[in-house]
Write a structure and sequence with these properties.
Structural class of chain A: alpha/beta
Oligomer: heterodimer
Strand content of chain A: 15-25%
Distance between the termini of chain A: 62 Å
Low-confidence stretches of chain B: 1-5, 275-280, 452-458
Number of strands of chain B: 0
Helix content of chain A: 25-40%
Low-confidence stretches of chain A: 1-7
Number of helices of chain B: 22
Structural class of chain B: mainly alpha
Mean pLDDT of chain A: 88
Number of strands of chain A: 10
Order of helices and strands of chain B: HHHHHHHHHHHHHHHHHHHHHH
Radius of gyration of chain B: 27 Å
Number of helices of chain A: 8
Distance between the termini of chain B: 32 Å
Largest sheet of chain A: 6 strands, mixed
Number of domains of chain B: 2
Largest sheet of chain B: none
Shape of chain B: globular
Mean pLDDT of chain B: 82
Helix content of chain B: over 70%
Strand content of chain B: under 5%
């Protein structure tokens, strides 16, 4: 936890991160350097350790070894300070279900010690931008999956964080909502924010990100700019990914001979 | 997003955060009550006022009572209040959102700040406010006299409330941590079930305890931490100043320890995540034996659920403990223990587990669409679903039988009733099948064993109706078995009755299953809609 590996200008610097659950090592000596102002994709197959890594980066899960710095500040042992400058959209959205969308943003802002009027102004803008104005007075418990993602994103943005970490932000979200989320994120990034998001949808990552880290078995197996990894779009990111994680598209051969309509 | 210049104010102190915690709690509570409708709101207010007044009257009347009686009342009331406060939330599930630390995990709050918000929220609910007012006013009316009691009584009352809050939240956090492993989860469930069984038994036997002021139970309760403030009050009333001061000091220290533990455990819960639960890898092959027929496949699937699903495991543990407690309390209260009648009392353990058989379609209904696609649910699957509820009904009954056998020595009767219990259980399944297809309710198989096991809110009328009609139906269906048994007492044909009873109840069960299969046909889309997980909200 000494902060080794923090590069100058790095929004997020992770060095030698390790997390074990019993005999299973979920994250194994993981290193990551996210440049400030970048849109950084963390991709990997299911169970690669993406979510565990993000939880350790944002101070939700204590690592067994290694260090994490955000904008030069050590996350561990006390993540309280860092939480002031990060916004997080976790995979398991634990929200106050019995608040309305508007109330949720208000209380998140107040608990972050912002003035009430300021929070109300920001909330109104976020609700409008995210297309939630009509549902602002509905309870979060009644929101659809996409709406929950959007209100959670608003809650992650309301304090204008320096770094935004999103775990599978587009999962179970319809194309219209995805487009809205992307627009808001691009607006955020144009203001100097850094975005780190995990996904296993290669097309989305290739389209949005400028930097990528491919994670497999708890380690970073490839990292760099999207342009470098795809050889200036000569190869698809999906092929780079399959090559990096050692996966092969198995030909079913005769094993699915029963599958068909004939 | 344009106003980045505005910075958060660090001036918001702990008092400001506490006020925020209270506002958040009230907002959540009012939204919830608003959603539940006017009648529920009125009922909640009525219950809170009634509870406050009851405490004021019970404690206030102590002024007229003898010292011994007054002391027993304070100890009993505080102990029962503490048990309800500490173990109640564990048993009924559904933790208040404001006291769940994980909802605040993403916010930049130190452990102390988070604790202050949670404490303020925990203290400002309807229940805690009603209990605090009741204790403060009741104890002041009934126990403040001259001398040290003027100081000790209010301090002890406030300390009692703080101790209950601290221990309740510590227990909840400890159980949440324990749930990270399957063994820990089962141990936590067993612990909660035993605590609940004790609460239930205490509540049932309270009348006997009060009437015997110096009973052993009362002495035991007075040594539990939640009764220590009561001991301070009783000492002050008796004029024993030194004892009063000592008990108040010990109570304050204990309350402080409970709160420190709450803070520590909440912090541990947040920083060590929720994803460390190691689950055993199941060897499925053995479990999938017998899947060659439709019924075999259905039974096999239910057997897997029974072994692996958190709700099923919780159901059996809770059902066994509560079923035994229920049966034994009724037997004790009827002065049993000295006759054959006590043996028949063990059947009550089964009635306490009625719920295991009356909503088999609603259980984990999220995957019902798969079954519908495969042509179900049908008669075979309904029979399998019902049969798998048999352990919930028979285990507590038979264990109660062993207890009664040891206690009374009436092993012959116990054996007879234990065998007849199989027929009664099949009658329970017959009723359960009707209830399950007519009035199913979604019941998710949550990983959290302390989640709401009823799987619904505002459906208590449905549950009560099913329970009442279930008891009546089962008694009516089982009556011929017992009438015939009583007629054959002393006859060599008596031991033929368990077989005859089983043929009788088995026939009813099969006929009901035919009806259920017919009833379900064509209603599948409606069923999926009624049992969709979204219906829970």
């Amino acid at each position: 936890m000494n902060g080794n590996g923090a590069g100058p200008g790095a929004a997020v610097a992770v060095a030698g991160l390790v997390k074990r659950f019993g005999e299973k090592t979920a994250v194994d000596q993981l290193d990551l350097l996210v440049p400030t102002g970048s849109w950084f994709g963390v991709v990997g197959p299911n169970g690669a350790g993406k979510t565990t890594t993000i939880r350790m980066i944002v101070g939700l899960l204590r690592p067994d070894e290694g260090s994490v710095q955000i904008c030069g500040r050590d996350v561990w042992p006390d993540p309280t300070e860092v939480k002031k400058i990060v916004g997080v959209l976790p995979d398991d959205l634990r929200l106050f279900e019995r608040l309305t969308g508007e109330e949720l943003l208000l209380y998140v802002g107040l608990l972050r010690r912002f003035e009430r009027d300021e929070v109300l102004n920001r909330s109104a803008e976020l609700l409008d931008l995210l297309g939630l104005r009509g549902a602002a007075n509905d309870l979060v418990a009644d929101y659809s999956t996409g709406m929950r993602k959007k209100i959670a994103l608003a809650a992650a943005l309301v304090h204008s964080p320096k770094v935004l970490l999103l775990d599978e932000p587009f999962e179970s979200v319809d194309p219209v909502s995805s487009k809205i989320i992307v627009d808001v994120l691009e607006h955020y990034r144009s203001g100097g924010g850094t975005i780190v998001f995990s996904s296993h949808v290669m097309d989305t990552v290739e389209r949005l990100c400028d930097h990528v880290a491919i994670v497999s078995d708890g380690r970073v197996v490839r990292t760099g700019t999207v342009a470098t990894l795809t050889d200036a779009s000569m190869v698809r990111l999906e092929d780079v990914f399959v090559d990096a994680v050692g996966g092969t598209a198995t030909n079913p051969g005769d094993s699915l001979a029963w599958l068909g309509v004939g | 997003m344009t106003s980045q210049i505005v910075k958060p104010s660090d001036a918001t102190g702990l008092a400001g955060l506490a006020a925020l915690g209270v506002r958040l709690r009230w907002r959540l509570s009012t939204n919830r009550l608003h959603r539940r409708g006017k009648r529920t709101r009125r009922l909640v207010i009525l219950a809170a006022v009634g509870y406050t007044l009851a405490n004021i009257v019970i404690l206030g009347l102590a002024r007229q009572a003898t010292d011994e009686r007054a002391a027993a009342t304070v100890i009993l009331l505080m102990s029962s209040m503490a048990l309800g406060w500490v173990f109640g939330p564990v048993l009924i599930g559904g933790v208040d959102e404001t006291v769940d630390p994980t909802r605040l995990a993403l916010l930049p709050l130190s452990a102390t700040e988070r604790y202050v918000i949670q404490l303020a929220a925990a203290m400002s609910g309807t229940g805690p406010i009603a209990a605090s007012i009741g204790l403060l006013i009741g104890l002041s009316l009934g126990h403040i006299g001259l001398g040290i009691s003027i100081v000790v009584v209010p301090i002890a009352a406030i300390t009692a409330v703080l101790m209950m809050v601290g221990s309740a939240r510590s227990l909840a956090a400890a159980l949440a941590i324990a749930q990270r492993s399957r063994v820990g989860r089962d141990a936590a469930v067993l612990f909660a079930a035993l605590a609940g069984g004790t609460m239930f038994t205490m509540a049932q036997l309270a009348r006997d305890v009060v009437s015997v002021g110096g009973s052993l139970l009362l002495q035991v309760l007075s040594w539990l931490p939640w009764a220590w403030p009561a001991r301070a009050i009783n000492a002050a009333r008796a004029g024993d100043e030194l004892a009063a001061v000592v008990w108040v000091a010990v109570s304050i220290a204990t309350a402080a320890l409970a709160h420190l533990l709450w803070m520590r455990l909440s912090n541990h819960l947040l920083l060590h995540g929720e994803r460390s639960a190691e689950t055993r890898r199941a060897s499925g092959r053995a479990l999938l034996n017998g899947t060659r027929t439709e019924f075999g496949a259905a039974l096999s699937r239910q057997w897997i659920y029974l072994r692996r699903s958190p709700n099923s495991r919780v159901g059996i543990v809770f059902g066994t403990v509560f079923g035994i407690a229920f049966a034994m309390v009724q037997i004790v209260q009827q002065g049993g223990g000295n006759g054959a009648a006590a043996s028949f009392g063990i059947l009550l353990a089964m009635l306490a587990n009625l719920g295991a058989a009356t909503n088999v379609l609603g259980f984990d209904a999220g995957s019902l669409w798969l079954e519908v696609l495969a042509g179900g649910p049908n008669r075979a699957s309904m029979i399998a679903r019902q049969l798998i509820a048999l352990p919930n009904l028979l285990i507590p009954t038979w264990v109660s039988g062993v207890i009664v056998g040891v206690w009374t020595g009436q092993w012959r009767f116990v054996m007879l009733v234990a065998l007849l219990a199989i027929s009664v259980a099949v009658n329970v399944l017959s009723f359960g099948m009707v209830a399950s297809v007519i009035a199913p309710a979604p019941l998710p198989d949550w990983d959290n064993p302390f989640g709401n096991r009823q799987g619904n809110e505002s459906r208590s009328t449905r549950i009560a109706l099913i329970a009442i009609s279930g008891i009546v139906t089962i008694v009516v269906l089982s009556a011929p078995i017992f009438v015939a048994t009583f007629r054959l007492l002393g006859s060599s044909w008596l031991w033929f009755m368990p077989v005859a009873g089983l043929v009788y109840s088995g026939t009813i069960f099969l006929l009901v299953s035919l009806w259920a299969g017919w009833f379900l046909r064509g209603r599948e889309p409606l069923l999926i809609e009624r049992l969709a997980p979204r219906a829970l909200n």
